[in-house]
Specification:
Blueprint lengths: L2 E2 L5 E3 L6 E5 L3 H6 L5 H21 L4 E8 L7 H20 L1 H4 L2 E5 L7 H13 L6 E8 L1 H14 L7 H7 L10 E4 L18 E4 L9 H13 L9
Parallel strand pairs: 3-4, 3-7, 4-6, 5-6, 7-8
Antiparallel strand pairs: 1-2
The structure holds farnesyl diphosphate (FPP).
């Protein structure tokens, strides 16, 4: 069960909550409401992301996954795409510098070949430098759930398989060996999955909030966790 301090602040999640995935939506709206550029919204989104990573670590979560950039996000203005990639590079630099302080194993899920060579190199360096840590941070970048499942099946076919099991597919996904998300949080009011973790979310609980991603804070994450603990997960069985 989750643990709280005397003021009611959530300190630790229980062992039955291992993995939270976030669809970080609303950076653009956050900025537009303030008359700022969308890029500024992503800058603030990055700050919120870093705080969320820290808090999720403190809560004792084994895995956190974030949807940073979908395969469809290339359709955005070039300036905005460049900004998101630049923020990410900066984050990776910081991660490389402070790996022992962050104590998180970063992994990228998604198709890498379309990313710049420099970003691809930094990703490999960050993954290598953090591979010894237990807690996992998956960053979904140029990620699409259908593409992931299709690639997994093609991989199995190339390996000579003519029929595949569910376990085979799970084992061929980017998330092989990682527990499925127990909880998926989407900010900014939209209630859809947008091609995120399609296979892995089969039995996930969902928490939707109108809060825009740059405004997400510990209190909102606590609400999501508390909401999760009110659910009865049956995985298709009866109680
Ligand atoms: C969705 O908001 C957000 C994104 C597509 C990018 C997410 C990026 C960050 C949170 C900052 C960078 C973090 C990492 C890990 C790279 P939106 O732009 O779709 O907002 P809107 O729906 O209000 O327009």
């Amino acid at each position: 069960m989750p643990q709280y301090d005397e003021s009611g602040r959530l300190l630790r999640v229980g062992r039955d909550l291992k993995h939270i995935a976030f669809i970080m939506d609303g950076n653009g709206r956050w900025a537009e409401r303030r008359g700022l550029s969308r890029e500024k919204g992503h800058t603030e989104g990055m700050k919120a992301f870093e705080k969320a990573v820290k808090y999720c670590g403190e809560l004792g979560l084994e895995v956190m996954t974030v949807y940073a950039f979908s395969t469809e996000n290339w359709k955005r203005p070039e300036r905005e795409v460049r900004k998101i990639m630049a923020l990410l590079e900066k984050y990776l630099d910081k991660l490389l510098e402070k790996a022992s302080e962050y104590e998180v194993r970063v992994r990228f899920i998604g198709e890498r070949k379309s990313l710049s060579d420099r970003l691809q190199q930094k990703i490999v360096m960050a993954e290598d430098a953090t591979s010894k840590y237990g807690r996992i941070l998956n960053i979904a970048l140029n990620y699409g759930g259908r593409a992931e499942i299709t690639a997994a099946v093609n991989k199995l076919i190339s390996a000579g398989r003519r029929t595949v099991s569910e376990d085979d597919i799970s084992g061929a996904l980017y998330t092989s060996g990682i527990p499925d998300p127990d909880l998926i949080v989407r900010t900014a009011g939209e209630q859809r999955l947008s091609n995120f973790l399609l296979w892995q979310s089969a039995y996930s609980e969902f928490y939707f909030t109108d809060t825009l991603w740059p405004d997400i804070d510990e209190a909102e994450i606590q609400r999501a966790v508390e909401n999760y603990y009110k659910r009865t997960r049956r995985f298709g069985a009866v109680r």
